[in-house]
Structure formats: C-alpha cells, structure tokens
Amino acid sequence: IYKLKDQVINSLKERDQLKLYCDLELPLASILAKMEQNGIRLDISTIRKMEEEVQEKLDDLTLRIYKLANKEFNINSYAQVAEVLYDDLNLPAHKKRSTAADYLEEIASFHPIVNLILDYRKYAKLQGTYIKGLQNFVHGDGKIHTIYNQFLTQTGRLSSKEPNLQNITIRDDEQRMVRKAFLPSNENSYLLSIDYSQIELRVLAHMADATSLINAFNNDEDIHLQTAMKIFDIENKDDVTSLQRRQAKAVNFGIIYGISDWGLAEQLGVSVSKAKDFINKYFATFPEIKTYLDKAVSDCEKNGYVKTLFNRIRYVKEINDPNYTVREFGKRVAMNAPIQGTAADIIKKAMLDIDKLLNDKNYQTKMLLQIHDELVFEVPENELMEVIPLICETMENAASLKVRLKVDYGYGKNWYDAK
DNA sequence: TTGCTCACG
DNA sequence: ACGTACGTGAGCAAG
Length: 419
Ligand SMILES: [Mg+2]
Hints:
By secondary structure, the protein is of the alpha+beta class. It has three domains: about 1-40 and about 140-200 and about 345-410, Alpha-Beta Plaits (2-Layer Sandwich); about 45-135, Taq DNA Polymerase, Chain T, domain 4 (Up-down Bundle); about 200-345, Orthogonal Bundle (DNA polymerase, domain 1). Helix content is about 55%, strand content about 10%. A four-stranded antiparallel sheet has the order 9-10-6-11. A three-stranded antiparallel sheet has the order 2-1-5, with no helix packed on it. It binds magnesium ion. Magnesium ion binds next to strand 6. It binds a DNA duplex through helix 4, helix 6, strand 4, helix 10 and helix 11.
C-alpha cells in the first residue's frame, strides 16, 4: 500500500485530479460519515397509522379486482396480471406483454380493472417499500441511518442504501404523506430543506456558454416557459398553454439526457417527425448548445472519456462500439455525464463549505441528508433564521459560473412540511 | 439470482 | 434499417 501511494498520487497529478481527490472527495468522506451517524428520526406511531389505512385500501382494491377478473390471483405477480389482462380479458398487449404503468395507462379506458390494478400497485409500493420497509431500518435510537456510497455511480453522484433515502416519495399527494413521519430528533428543532433550482440546465448553460439561456436564468425567468416561447414561436407569455410548457420541459430534460427524436417522441406521445421539429427548433434557438453537445460527443470519440468541470472522468467504452444501439448509448452518456457530474461536483463542494461554516460558528445545526440537488438539515429553533441565509448563500456560491446558481428552501416540524 | 416494476433526482 | 431518453435502490415473484 505504501508503494502504491506514490503511484496513485502521480496518476492523479497526471490527470489533474489531485484537487478533486484531496480537496473534495477526501474531506467529503468524513462529512458523509457524520451524516450517517446523525441519522434522521422516524416516528413509528405516524407510520403505523398509515400502515393500517393503506392496508384497508389494499384489501378493498383486492376484492374489487378479484370480482372484475372473476377469479382470485396474486396481483403482485406480473405474470398473473398479464394473464388476466391479455388472455382472460383479451386487452391489447404491448411488446413482451409488459404490464408497466406506461402501457396499462393506454388501455385503462377499455376495462375498469386496469385502473384498479394501477391503484393497487401504487398502494402496494407505498406499503411495502416505504411503510413496512422503512420501519425495518429504525435503530434503537429511533432513527434511520442510511449508508451513502461515495464511489459507486458513473457520474460522481452519491447513492444511498439500507434504506435508500434519496427516493422517498414526493410526486404523488398520498404517497408524499410518508414524509410526515420524518422528524427532527428533538422538540426544539426543525427540518430545513434547501434545493438547487434547475442546477443541471444552469450547468449546461455555463459549459455551453449559451448566452440567451444564461440571460434567462440570470433574469430569474421560468425556464420551461421561456423555452416554450422560443421553440413554438410565441411572443406573449400568457399565450403559452400548459401543454406547450410541458412539452418544452420534456425537451429540456431530453437535452440533459442526450436527446434523441425517438426518445422525445416516446416521452411526449407525439410523432417522431414532430419531436424532430422540436429538437431542431431548440438548437436553432440555442445554437451554442448544439455546438457544445456535438463537441462533447466528438471529444469522447477521440479520447474515450468525458470530464466534468472539476475534472472528474467517465470512461465511455461504448462510444466506439460496432453495435449501433450501444454506440448511441455512448453518445448520450457523453452528453449527460459532464452535466450530471458537474452538478454532483458542485453540491459536494457546497457540503464542504457548509460543514466548515457550521463548525466555525459553532452552530448545532446538523446536515442529515443529500438528495442529489437538495440538502436536508436539522436546525434548532434559535438558529433557524440565522442559518437559512448563510447556508443558502453558501450553496449559491459553491461554484462561480457564468450563470447564477439559485436555491429554494422550506422548513417545518417534519419533512413533509419542509416545502 | 434474475427480471420486472416503480420510487427518486 | 437500426432503436432508447440520464443516474440510482428496493420489493416481489419465479426459477
Ligand atoms: Mg430542485
């Protein structure tokens, strides 16, 4: 190990990654350890109450599904669900008789059992993973102590396991209630959640030096609305429909994922030629982004890897693969990894700066969770109004880009209310 | 152990 | 003609 040290340090130097290692990842390791040891309190009585209510829903749905199917079967079994839908009831099946929600939604109008199964799935997920599942991870101190993996993902993000606290439900109003069970560890404290606004699109605007996108962000515009106005040629904000805004939002996501006309068409449920129009219009509006993404791909083809702003490297062996599909995947990775990875670099830097801030000023505020673009803190009431602007400012200044970084925050007596 | 599904950013 | 959006983890059924 001692001999290896010099070799490793040398290869980090050659790659210009010494700073990334010594000043970012290494100090972050002990911060993550502290976060894991702190843990977050889960209120068992709240979650038990939810368990009973959800079980009633599941029992009721089960009976109604059996009745419509004219038989009893295991609704948790995809094979048995497929048999009921595609054989017994003769509903139209997609490729490989998939029963994934995207496909079931398309046939929901043909038979009432379909929505009941979708509903059942929703509550079963809630019950299994988030209500019963989480309880199994509560330690003797009444807290959940997740495990962060600092060096697993291909992009530089963290991952979280046992349990995963980076995928706690939020999008569905009922499933979101799980967050009411996450509490600060004492009566005097609040949970404070601060998240970056559109950090990946801002990173893209910076890296591509896309003037009009940078200006839109610096003027604090609604970026999906602005995108809609430009790709649909709309002059007045008020004339943008919610559908057009949603479509523009999907285009923005697509850009970050490494856009393809087929993928966008699939996502939006429009024709491929329509999707192609959207993309062409987008690139005509933001020509620097087209230039940047093309260069990301061609650099990757030449070097076999891509880099983040902080010099994190992702090797992309797929980029020169003889197989078309694999190669196309390599191109999307080449476009996405620098963006997702730079955003990960920035929040890691923010975590170091915040840790130093809290230590230097002897605050009792504790950082508990990281969810990719969001940090969750436990804050004593008497520190709350003082630390909010300090932490927000620290996050916004964690990196100085051509575009301003912006955060939003919320706090409350539980995670649900910290919005 | 593997594949499917679904939860998050 | 090819054929999928990027990054993860967990629970369940089936072999
Ligand atoms: Mg956000």
